[in-house]
Please model this.
Amino acid sequence: MRGRVAFLIAWLLAGAAALAQPAAPTAQELRPVLQHHAALVHATYADTLTLARRLQQAVQRFVRAPSAAALTGARQAWLQARERYALTEAFRFHGGPIDGDDGPEPQLNAWPVDETYIDALIARRQQPISKRTLSALNTRDGEENVATGWHAIEYLLWGQDLSAEGPGDRPHTDYVDGRAANADRRRLYLATVTALLVDDLAWLEQAWAPARANYRRRFEQGDQESLRGLIVGLGSLSRAELAGERLEVALASRDQEDEQSCFSDSTHRDIVGDALGIQNAWLGRYAGLDGRQLKQGPALRDLVAARDAALAERLTAQMAESLQAAEAIEPPFDREILGGSDAPGRQRIKRVIDALLRQSSSLVEAARALGIQKLNWVRKP
Amino acid sequence: MRAGIALLLVATLAGAALGQAASDDQQRPGGATTVEVNGRRAFSLAAANLTAEEQTRFAVGNSFFRRNWVAAPASTGARDGLGPLFNARSCSGCHVNDGRAAPGEAGLLLRLSVPGRDAHGGPLPEPRYGGQLATQAIPGVPVEGRLLMTEQALHGRFADGMRYTLQSPRYRLAALSHGPLDRQALLGPRIAPQLIGLGLLEAIAEADIEANAAAQAARGDAIRGQANRVWDAPSGQQRIGRFGWKANVATLAHQTAAAFAGDMGITSRLFPQTDCTAAQHACLAAPNGGAPEIEDDVLAEVVFYAATLAPPLRRDVGDAEVQRGQQLFQRAQCAVCHRPSYTTAQAPFPRLSSPALAGQAIHPYTDLLLHDMGEGLADGRPDFLANGRQWKTPSLWGLGLIQGVNGHQRLLHDGRARGVLEAVLWHDGEARASRAQVLAMSRAERQALIRFVESL
Model:
């Protein structure tokens, strides 16, 4: 309770400071930042799409001739594409293309997966398997009735994670006729959901592609409202999604179901990717695929630094701290959450949460410094 | 689906509320708990004034609300115990996005009983099928049956000559697993409502509800609401009912634990039995997920979650048409039962709610009383003090946002009304005079009335 009072007072002081100086950036100051951010978003989605296409090729090789080696290849391609995708989560939570009303987020990234739902769809031989039907079946009659997206593919490649030490261990023979029931339909299902994933990522890449009448153009011209979206997205991912839903919930339940990438035991990389994606957006920095570097441009940090240099420096340090704490989590995540409150794994996770909470509070301050009052997202009617 | 995230930086909005004058009180249906949000997540945010610790409780409760339970035995120990009989695998299976179900979905369930009362004064379960029809079951246990609905069109006219059509549903059961229902069986269809502001409704003082009944009795007209008095398992006593379509549940703890047991087949300390009857041998013989299947501490977080889902900010409060609608709402006596405002008191179980909900000026638009709504809506199924024609006045906050959350606007206890106007036209019994006023309104007036209700 005392902590809360202190927080409110701190906020009121920050609010008072914001009122004293009309701090909203001019359009002239803002446009280059928004343009550079849009270029960063586009580069990240474009690389994710490239890696998803590599995943699709690996999946095609595997379903054409299922073998242990081809399955390993597909799993590695999934891990690489998935890690890149995690960077893009910093672009969520403000009604952008990914989670606008017709955005692909639920189709792309729904979790946790009820494995029996996918198994039942595969086993029901009269059920047609196509992009259209799987899309319609996704999350029908329940949020865990996940038929599509990253985690459906993950389940199809790894199977249930029943091992304490490692990930799921699905045999490639699940895809071999005569070795497992409905192997033909499992192959078709895997190829189909992978194709759908590529479609969705291509759609996102297009929404952020330069020089088109698309979301990116509106974003670049959206001035203060776009800036608000950018910062609300970073704050929401830091606090509610990553610290709250992914970490605090898992600590409380100690349940593997609260582990996002539970089949492949790669949840720790999701967490690192999210933290890095936030840092990228803050600094305006992006290390692209195959050694390509995005040319540095003006970023959110620069806008904040122009108003409160100490705050900008503090946030930069806090984001580095969050990232470092995330990298210290030891896989598998579903073991890391077990034990008493002094268990080393739980303490490592707690350090990530604490760092993210500090970073979220500073993001609130940064928003105030930029003249932003509303800190949750409301879609314009 | 990760769209259900409860944002946020929302704690800071409480600060914003502090600085604002009483003039925008009307805009904040939940007082300082109110959140500004629309679209798919409009019903999914935590009260704006929770502490950081409470936000964590909310997130944990949300997880157990949203995620599927599985049949025991299973690899997950935290969420096993589904069934044997059930209607949904998770709370969110019916309350999709914390919102409202429509006919044809799992969230329209059928309560079953026979005439008479149980030891606590509640309905007597149907002897072979129990208290509700389970439309799903774990492998090896027969599903109880299917609910079939047919609709009959009812035609009418407004005073200005404009025609309207209502859909009157009829219910029938098919594929019953244990033979026909008892000849005297009573059927009560119930739609899952949106969950915003429940902790605030729970914190309305019983004296305020009783005062509503006294004020209505003093009017001397047809409107004469009555409080339901029901058995509350967590407190082990009778209390005034306020949740459920017949106000047949007094507290969120009871409501939540009863829903786990009845709708998902998950036992708790409060409800150690699932809905297997003596005739249902496979159900009785099925494995369970431990006793109880949901532990007190987990249940507490789900109750906390349900208590702290916040009412969203009103829209278009200053709009001239909306304000005209508000006057018409008053003139047609709608506000007699849909009482706009209260100041909340304390929640009945402090550990299952938040101090942030107490002392708030709120605007739910309900008296929490039972009213005779006429033969057209009657289900003929009594529940504690409620008779077969009585329904509790539902709150009106958030009605205009259901479309954005759930993609429909099906209203009333079984979702028969397709929008606000149809719901009004179904009003009869004690509300007959109000309906007559609406029938006499011009098209523009009806439109204004709807705009007002949808702005709440």
Summary: Confidence is low (pLDDT under 50) at residues 1-20 of chain A.
